[in-house]
Write a structure and sequence with these properties.
The protein has 691 residues and is of the alpha/beta class. Helices cover 44% and strands 23% of the residues. The protein is built from 27 helices and 26 strands. It is elongated. The structure holds ligand C2E and magnesium ion. Ligand C2E binds at residues 324, 340-341, 352-354, 357, 370, 373, 397-399, 429, 459-460, 483, 516-519, 536-538, 543.
């Protein structure tokens, strides 16, 4: 029986790949027969030497620099080296080097696996002198990838096989280049190249096809599920911070996928499809995946058109700002504004930010666009001040790229100085997701901005998965709860609890809370009951041009915000039934009892009424279209546990009812048709118990 150690030994000795083990200084300790044979040297000539002896002087110095930088910082490196055999012949090798660590994480050895470069052979077929390898990353270049796809197409035509191509483009790369410099950006590219190589199978190919663009050729199992799985892995691999001297950077990528034979039958058209799909991913804001479809193609065209049209948008004076008020729930007054940018396109009309902000981010225009917004906001405030209006803080949205790029604090200082406005009149809004992309950088930036006296808000809160400890360390003034939570706060007990918890937590940390997307009075009143500080939403005020805002600031809101509930001594009864004549009959019957009576003809309205008013007792029909009475009262139990809930129903629903009563959703069941005096007595009893 052969021991596992012996098997390992055999595996290495007999391997058809060349293998070399060195110590941490690069001194060769072991070389396997395959590699020894390829080199043409004897064992004695190699052991104890440095692999430099194989060098042919044909590999660019940057390749070695990238290699050492990767392996010395503990990462694997994959690339091409051109070496020389003892007899003087050149050999092109694809090399994979892995550092080996001890228990403390110190590098003790390096292990290299080498294979003869098949691409180098293909390069001869293509005419020999064509450059095939990208010197920075050691990956094949575009020409090589095209040749690779062509040869695969020839092979698969006969075998009737499928494969997939993936185009992966790093988002907003020139902004990164500007920020960290070319050398560091190159370092990022070579790190990402290694990660891509590591993420795919040995039989797949990875090429660098453009400045910040890679193409992956996936030979086996190009099923949708596999491609989605792989994309997710790639996105995570890219997303992991890249360590650089003096910190680290985080990048994202847009991925486009095309499949053979589904999307094209030759290399160029397949590559075109992957690029269209990738552009479509970019136009959705980047950091995502798209498969090629005709609609992705159309989206890519629209994106390209927007990209060129957006170029001089500032010089052509086509940007507009709308302002949306924020309302204080204690005073009912406007307490601030948010500036929201629009593009007044000469032919397409007003374009929403969701369509052009991603374009501006990708092209790097976002930095000048955001500066324009901040400058315009300050100029507008100074005009309002000159007109004698009170100065309110205005929120300005900052994108991730602007937050990180350039020198935001000095831009702010300059703009505040030229307009003579106080720093507190600006409140920069940064989305939670943006902050979470690179928390350590966010902490530094936030502190620098706060030091200027400018306020900060954490936007879209609830969507970015930040932790409590993170929030407590982030020095922001307020948090803005995302509209997706606010939307169903009156109907969905879970979201209502989340919002209540966010508010309580934020207050504990001494942050103000703004709820965005308030579209009904019920939502506003429920938020007030949870002690939310401010609200922003269409129900009270839509984003409006500055003239209309000036009118609002002078005359107040047309829709008043109730800042108090009805006195708790007032007995309020909610009646719910989809048949108006039954509602009227009930109302007439109970009118004399002195209650304040509210009516609703369906469950959704009932929940809205409950949110807007303090109600003690509810009488609901069971059989209603949409939400049944039991379903309604179950939600009411979760949202307003102190209410008394009575159901009016026929005996046929009795088993459902017993269950609802047992679960505590329903307090009393009264059968239809009801007996007037008995009903009155039950309701009186319900109010008495509530007190
Ligand atoms: P945001 O910061 O979350 O802005 C709030 C968005 O919610 C605005 O959309 C606003 O019109 C909308 N909204 C407010 N109340 C309601 C409501 O009751 N119901 C609904 N359904 N929506 C409501 P808008 O103006 O389309 O802006 C969308 C996003 O674009 C903003 O989201 C912000 O992230 C971005 N954005 C807007 N202006 C700028 C800017 O100047 N610079 C940057 N970088 N991003 C901007
Ligand atoms: Mg915002």
């Amino acid at each position: 029986m052969t021991s596992i150690d012996e098997l390992f030994h055999l595996m290495v000795e007999r391997n058809t790949a060349g293998m070399v083990l060195t110590d941490r200084n690069g001194v060769i300790l072991y070389i396997n027969p395959r590699q020894l044979e390829a080199s043409g040297y004897t064992l004695d000539e190699v052991i104890g030497k440095n692999p430099r002896i194989f060098r042919a002087g044909e590999t660019a110095p940057e390749v070695y620099a990238a290699m050492w930088s990767a392996i010395l910082s503990g990462h694997n490196w994959h690339g091409e080296l051109t070496n020389r055999r003892k007899n003087g012949e050149l050999c092109h090798e694809l090399v994979h080097i892995a550092p080996i660590h001890d228990d403390e994480g110190n590098i003790t050895h390096f292990f290299a696996i080498k294979e003869e470069n098949v691409y180098a052979g293909l390069s001869h077929l293509l005419g020999g002198n064509l450059a095939t390898i990208d010197p920075l990353t050691g990956l094949p270049n575009r020409a090589m990838m095209v040749a690779e796809i062509q040869s695969l197409l020839q092979a698969t035509e006969k075998a009737d096989e499928a494969f997939a191509l993936m185009c992966l483009d790093l988002d907003a790369f020139h902004a990164l280049n500007d920020r960290v410099g070319n050398l560091a950006a190159d370092e990022v590219l070579s790190r990402i190249a290694v990660r891509l190589r590591e993420a795919v199978r040995q039989s797949d190919a990875v090429a660098r096809t453009g400045g910040n663009e890679f193409v992956l050729l996936l030979r086996s199992d190009p099923s949708e599920a596999m491609l989605e799985e792989l994309s997710r892995r790639l996105i995570t691999a890219i997303d992991t911070p890249v360590p650089l001297q003096g910190g680290h950077v985080t990048v994202t990528a847009s991925i486009g996928i095309a499949r053979y034979p589904l999307d094209g039958s030759d290399a160029e058209s397949l590559l075109h499809c992957t690029q269209s799909a990738m552009s479509a991913a970019k136009s959705s804001g980047g950091d995502c995946v798209r498969f090629y479809t005709p609609s992705a193609e159309a989206q890519a065209h629209a994106f390209a058109d927007l990209t060129s049209a957006l170029r001089d948008v500032i010089a052509r004076h086509e940007l507009r700002l709308l302002y949306q008020p924020r309302i204080n729930l204690k005073s009912g007054k406007i307490s601030g504004l948010e500036a929201l940018v629009r593009w007044q396109h000469p032919t397409e009309g007003l374009i929403e930010p969701g369509r052009f902000i991603p374009v501006a981010e990708e092209t790097g225009l976002i930095v000048s666009l955001s500066e324009w917004v901040i400058g315009a906001v300050l100029a507008q405030q100074s005009r309002w001040r000159a007109d004698g209006l009170a100065i309110l803080p205005v929120g300005v949205n900052l994108s991730l790229r602007h937050f990180r790029s350039g020198d935001l604090p000095s831009v702010l200082t300059r703009l505040l100085a030229t307009t003579g406005m106080p720093p507190e009149c600006l409140e920069l809004e940064i989305s939670e997701g943006t902050m979470m992309r690179d928390p350590s950088q966010a902490f530094i930036m936030v502190d620098r901005i706060k030091a200027l006296g400018v306020r900060l808000a954490l936007d879209d809160f609830g969507t970015g998965l930040s932790s409590l400890s993170y929030l407590s360390r982030l020095n922001v003034d307020s948090i803005k709860i995302d509209k997706t939570f606010v939307r169903d706060i009156t109907t969905n007990p879970v979201n209502a609890s989340i919002v209540a918890a966010i508010i309580a937590m934020a207050h504990k940390l001494d942050r103000r809370v703004v709820a965005v997307g308030v579209e009904s009075e019920g939502q506003a009143m429920q938020l007030r009951r949870h002690e939310c500080d401010e609200i922003q939403g269409f129900y009270y005020a839509k984003p409006s041009p500055p003239e209309e805002i000036a009118t609002l600031l002078v005359h107040g809101l047309s829709q008043q915000v109730r800042t108090e509930d009805a006195p708790s001594t007032e007995q309020t009864l909610l009646l719910v039934d989809d048949e108006p004549n039954i509602l009227n009959a009930l109302k007439r019957l109970l009118h004399r009892e002195g209650y304040r009576i509210l009516l609703a003809t369906d469950g959704a309205t009932a929940l809205e009424v409950l949110a807007a008013h303090r109600v003690q007792v509810i009488v609901s029909d069971h059989r209603m279209p949409g939400m049944s009475g039991i379903e309604l009262l179950s939600r009411v139990r979760d949202l307003y546990p102190h209410t008394r809930r009575i159901i009016l129903s026929g005996y046929s629903d009795i088993s459902l009812l017993t269950d609802a009563i047992n679960r505590g959703a329903v307090w009393k069941f009264i059968s239809k048709p009801w007996e007037d005096d008995a009903l009155k007595a039950e309701i009186r009893h319900a109010f008495a118990l509530r007190e």
